[in-house]
Amino acid sequence: MNGLSTISDAKSRDSLTIAGERVVCDQRGVLFFPDISLLAVSDLHLEKGSSFARRGAFLPPYDTAATLARLQQVVADHDPRVVVSLGDSFHDGAGAERLPGMFRQQVEALAAGRDWFWIAGNHDPDAPAGLPGESVRELQIGALSFRHEPSATVVEGEIAGHLHPCARIVQRGRSVRRRCFASDGHRIIMPAFGSFTGSLNVLDRAYTAMFRWERFFAYMLGRDRVFPIARTLLRPG
């Protein structure tokens, strides 16, 4: 069972407007702006497994394959003209160099015929070696501002990642914790897309000054749709 389907006072909704731009919150953890044909994804953390292995901590070496397979599907479904990867696309600065040839070809195929932007992250501040696309610190498109780390206070039109937001609710005695889009209608903080990524509850103090909380919703990722959950229903943990 989905765990969110029994929520009676939160209707299903997958779209909202940020800085005048219509945006669809895809339940797989990406944003799509249909009027400008732009897909945003955040915190892929590709080659995290190999990064840990270099330090003697061995994780199953399947994270890049799983993450790229999911990314390939959402790109195929939305067929965007522009793709923006919001930083920490690789788990460390040498991640792109370690990318196996078959995965490099996947990225090249995904970027072919599209404008592809790599936003610099704290894990990968430099351009990914030998991959197509343009590397930038931030990207401004109309009233929208794409960056990795969210500004400390409310910024109209900002789309950011970095914090890996999640939300938890308790419904009929059952606790449900899911990744989410965090938004008050002015800005969005995106969930991490990478297969081996953790998450930080939106009630953590790191988010305190970032939103107008009376308008805040956590758009929790369900199996087939997103569920907007009001601040009053959220629980820590």
Protein model, in words:
By secondary structure, the chain is of the alpha/beta class. The chain has a single domain (15-233), classed as Purple Acid Phosphatase, chain A, domain 2 (4-Layer Sandwich). Helices cover 16% and strands 29% of the residues. The strands form two sheets. Strands 8, 9, 10, 11, 12, 13, 14, 15 and 16 form a nine-stranded mixed β-sheet that branches. A seven-stranded mixed β-sheet has the order 1-2-3-4-5-6-7, with no helix packed on it. Helix 2 (63-78) runs parallel beside helix 4 (101-111). The longest helix is centred in the first third of the chain and has 16 residues, at 63-78.
List the helices and strands and how they pair.
Blueprint: E1 15-18, E2 21-25, E3 31-33, E4 38-41, H1 48-54, H2 63-78, E5 82-85, H3 95-98, H4 101-111, E6 115-119, E7 134-136, E8 139-141, E9 144-146, E10 158-160, E11 165-171, E12 174-183, E13 188-189, E14 200-201, E15 217-221, E16 226-230
Parallel strand pairs: 4-5, 5-6, 6-7, 9-10, 10-13, 11-14
Antiparallel strand pairs: 1-2, 2-3, 3-4, 8-9, 11-12, 12-13, 12-15, 15-16
Helix pairs in contact: 2-4
Short description:
With about 240 residues, the chain is of the alpha/beta class. It contains four helices and 16 strands.
